[in-house]
Design brief:
The protein is an alpha+beta fold and 148 residues long. The chain is built from four helices and seven strands, in the order E-H-H-E-E-E-H-E-H-E-E.
């Protein structure tokens, strides 16, 4: 399993994965939302801030991160590829690209939200701790922080 930077040549396969998991992500409900997300992904790809894991000509996992904001922005793994270490490998690679001299943040689902069980466990495994409660796209979230 190799993590690599996504490129515009990957965008269709990338968005195929996003469509498969979109019901789990607030803000990706409509075709317009998905098109906006596609444009965002292309911008991240242009800055080398988009990571993916490919196999069998498909993308199995994706991660967007921001060096400027020192944060993990989006992490998703194909339902058929979960529990294989893909999310850990993506997160490990992204953390290597971010400034460990500053706090690193990620926003995920709140405690008690079934969508949050796996991501919260992943972030805790890497040393992130719970911080403020927030909302994104009108959905209750919680910030996790990996302190410097």
């Amino acid at each position: 399993m190799e993590v690599c930077f996504g490129t515009p040549a990957d965008i269709d396969r990338w968005m195929n994965l996003v469509r498969r998991v979109s019901r789990d992500f607030p803000g990706l409900e409509t075709e317009e939302d998905l098109e906006e997300h596609k444009q965002t992904v292309l911008k991240f790809m242009g800055k080398r801030q988009a990571l993916c894991v490919k196999s069998d000509d498909q993308i199995q996992g994706v991660l967007l991160f921001s060096r400027n904001r020192n944060m993990i922005c989006c992490l998703a793994v194909s339902p058929g590829s979960r529990r294989k270490g893909i999310a850990s490998k993506l997160l490990e690679t992204a953390l290597g690209e971010l400034d460990r001299g500053r706090d690193i943040t990620v926003s995920t689902f709140r405690e008690g939200d079934e969508k949050g069980t796996a991501p919260r466990a992943l972030y805790r495994k890497f040393g992130f701790i719970e911080a403020e409660l927030t909302e994104e796209f009108g959905y209750p979230n919680q910030v996790f922080v990996l302190e410097r």
